[in-house]
Amino acid sequence: MSKKSSLNDPRGLYPTPPFPDQPQPAPGLARKMNPTPDHGEQSYRGSGKLTGRKALITGGDSGIGRAAAIAFAREGADVAIAYLPDEEADAEEVIRLVEEEGRKAIGLPGDIKEESWCRALVERAVSELGGLDILLVNAGRQQYREKIEELSTDDFDKTMKTNLYALHWIAQAAVPHMPVGSSVITTASIQAYQPSPILLDYATTKAGIVAYTKALAKQLIERGIRANVVAPGPVWTALQPSGGQPDEKVKNFGKDSDFGRPGQPVELAPVFVLLASQEASFINGEVYGVTGGKGVA
Ligand code: NAD
Ligand code: MG
């Protein structure tokens, strides 16, 4: 019986810190994490909410994007995932899981810091899926720097390119392909509202993602397309032990949430499914917080 099939205290549903020390190089692999993140592999159950839909998810190999990929497939969608070539091992697991649902899975390895790749990956997704009606722009770069002097121009540039420019390039390439009723979703962060001192560049991009998506939502509704933001709090993903946070913070990750633990990627999946589906037909330009109680204000 799944943990979710009976009523449980949400604080105790998933692992609590302290966690083992586990630094890994960026971009980090979900398969190397201890404890293993829950992306819904065993637990997520679909109910046909996205039957016949065609989704592109950036950063769909691991973490929050993987949870969305599994959920979208179990809800009946075909899924293309974009990721870095170093993440092929994680991506192959997702492709297998999507195919096990009888859905089409497309792998798109490449670096979204390159405009030409952003445009090419959208074209490949559209041609291999036979269309596109869900766009989840979720890939992100987070590398902490303790002091302003340590945040180099190169760092700043990479974070802006990955988190903001790629959003624009991918959305710009995708929107002309998206029919009436489609949904665009972006992944921001609680960092847009409560920025950490060690994440100057990252927090700036996350605030930018919120503003960009709200503005885009007002444009796209004129075409019958909705756009919304999900703003997660601490979630147990490879982003954190691969330079996203100091090792000490990773050990105690999520301890200061109201739940005394980080969220697991699967705990965000229902929000992505809702926003992607027609059930969200009056939801546009909104920010959905899944922060563990910190709020998005
Ligand atoms: P993750 O590391 O599993 O996913 C991030 C993905 O971004 C990577 O898997 C990678 O495929 C992709 N990516 C990064 N740089 C790329 C590049 N140059 N080219 C192509 N792909 C690239 O971590 P996650 O936590 O699931 O992150 C997903 C989103 O959630 C990110 O936007 C992140 O900022 C956001 N977020 C995470 C947390 C958290 O605590 N984990 C909190 C708030 C927001
Ligand atoms: Mg990854």
Automatic annotation (TrEMBL):
InterPro entries: NAD(P)-bd_dom_sf, Sc_DH/Rdtase_CS, SDR_fam. Keywords: Oxidoreductase. Pfam families: adh_short_C2 (PF13561). Residues 1-52 are annotated as: Disordered. Residues 15-26 have a biased composition (Pro residues). The keyword Acyltransferase does not apply. NCBIfam families: PRK06128.1. Belongs to the short-chain dehydrogenases/reductases (SDR) family. This is NAD(P)-dependent dehydrogenase (Short-subunit alcohol dehydrogenase family). It comes from Phyllobacterium ifriqiyense.
